[in-house]
Amino acid sequence: MEKSAIRDPGFYLMIAxxxxxxxIGPLVVDMFTIMQVTQYVVLSVFALSLGYIxxxxxxxxxxxxxxxxxxxxxxxVASINIGETTIPLILSFLLPAAFGAALGYFMFYGKxxxxxxxxxxMVVTLIFWKLANHTAGPEYVIGKARLGGxxxxxxxxxxxxxxxxxxxxxxxxxFQVFMAILIAVYVGLRLLIASDFGRVxxxxxxxxxxxxxxxxxxxxxxxxxxxxxxxxxxxAGAMWATYQSFxxxxxxxxxxxxxxxxxxxxxxxxxxxGPILGVILLQWxxxxxxxxxxxxxxxxxxxxxxxxxxALPKGMVPTLRGWALTGWTLARRGxxxxxxxxxxxxxxxx
Length: 350
What we know:
Elements: H1 9-28, H2 31-55, H3 65-82, H4 86-109, H5 114-133, E1 141-142, E2 145-146, E3 153-154, H6 171-194, H7 196-206, H8 208-213, H9 218-244, E4 246-247, H10 254-267, H11 273-291, H12 297-311, H13 316-340
Antiparallel strand pairs: 1-2, 3-4
């Protein structure tokens, strides 16, 4: 369980690292690396959406890509029609959040078990993927935006300065905006987790029956948590769409949902730093293995991820935190024993 955001020094360390990357990164790193790190930043926001609802709400979603893709398509269609990206970026959060709240209402007030909840989220993702693939005809147009079916939507506008539609951001500026969004999402979630609402959500995750007997509306809390996570996933989808200037039905693919699950498991469920580290490590490995002439880099990557999950079942961050705590405890005991031993004591009384 996360500590209070105010008293945890790790909270301020993460903010300092993020701000350093935001302001110093574009000055010392080449453009190719900046664009690669931008991808990590976008996917980290997506991973945080699942990390929050799973780790702090006890809601395991097998279909987080549904909200990711919905946010991406919302941004693409709205930005092409409006000709400006500020409002579409806001809509990419609000529409998936509203859809998540509606879906969550039927799931949680319908008292679905965890297994059926996972199945429902997975089925919703598959439905979106199927629908998006069947919009290839010329009749599938929303305003100026042609959906394109399996060919996707090309020429999605890059983010612009609010109020100046023709002032598009360059790759370095886009990285800085995305890094600012990641920092804002991280800080916002940490403060939310430290609030009364967050503590109740964690209590519900630990024991729903006890929380219900204490008078808390378990279903309402879960709907809100699920809606917030859905909105964050949609925001990440919009960032992905404008980063690539293209989006296709693969945004709804099960691969995206599976990746989010692996990132959170590898980094550590019940943390916010873990999903970010999971994205960085596994995406970096994916890039490096893709550059090597292996028989099948995906098989090698899968084996590495399986070994990582089996070796560190709690995830990287909780395991490293446990090792550090154990080392610190042993060191304190050693210092205490050394101070307790007085000079001449070892030789005895004779």
